[in-house]
Amino acid sequence: MLIEREAESCYLGQFIPLQYHHNMLMDLNRMDNFKAAIRRQVFEGAKVLELGGGTGVLSWFAAQAAAKVYCVEFNPDMVDEARRLLAMNRYGDKVEVIHADAFEYLPPEPVDIVICEMIHVAMLREKQVEVIENFKKRYVAKFGGPLPLFIPEAVVMAVQPLQQTYDFSGYQAPIIQFQQPGAFSADTVELAQPALYSIIDFSQANDMQIKWEGSFTVEKAGTVSALRFVTKNILAVLMESSSTIDWLNHYMALPLAQPVAVKEGDLLQVSFQYRAGGSIASLQNSMQVEVKSTTAIRAGHLSLAYG
């Protein structure tokens, strides 16, 4: 079982090579918002567990106030790196780096907060949802309630139809693209407003299967050649100010197998399904896009009304 999971973990991106962790450390959008959320939620003397610690930086943020931080990492190379790096930083001695599988590890005592950042756009590839759902069951069985607070607290996901150009120096190549939020590109045209398709609240039980069917009103004529997936991680909910500390992942644009021409005012029917932690291809292969004209829909509504 462990061998099978290790092979799957490598395939699905769990063992991120060390050089890519540099990019994660350089990502101020990620770092600053996690730092702010952890500072907000970790109180003096708290006990904290991090699942999938990587370089240990999020555990180190927690160690500024926490009495003890358990940092669990499955990749033996990263375990060594995290221990080396934490030893170079003040408060790093509060962090115990543990070589263990997050699917199996439980701390020796109850904890107040669990940090877990195994996050990919649309909650694909990495095992965030499965790890936390599994952890909650095992934690309650060992310690009873209440559950610790989770960082992130929730994830909000949306989808949007795009006209995406796939011309690379004259070479047509419809391939997956990751796009910087808020950055303009003439190659990307938004054909409708994004639609919310899933909210994952880690304080509640969550289904591993994600399935959605909905419609968009097309705002401009064009060709739907891709669906953009948007993932916003709610790192902390600030009740006193009715606000949140968020981390927005890069957008993911998945090309359609068959582009669909649309006119302004058309209704675009979209459906897809996938398993949290599954492959990107599993989502892409399930995507269905169909045009339903506003005239046809209105005629259908009238026939129902007077039938």
UniProtKB/TrEMBL annotation:
It comes from Undibacterium pigrum. This is Putative RNA methylase. Residues 48-135 form the Methyltransferase domain. Keywords: Methyltransferase, Transferase. The lineage of its organism: Bacteria, Pseudomonadati, Pseudomonadota, Betaproteobacteria, Burkholderiales. GO terms for molecular function: histone methyltransferase activity; protein-arginine N-methyltransferase activity. It holds the Pfam family Methyltransf_25. One of its GO terms (biological process) is methylation. Transmembrane segments: none annotated. CDD domains: AdoMet_MTases.
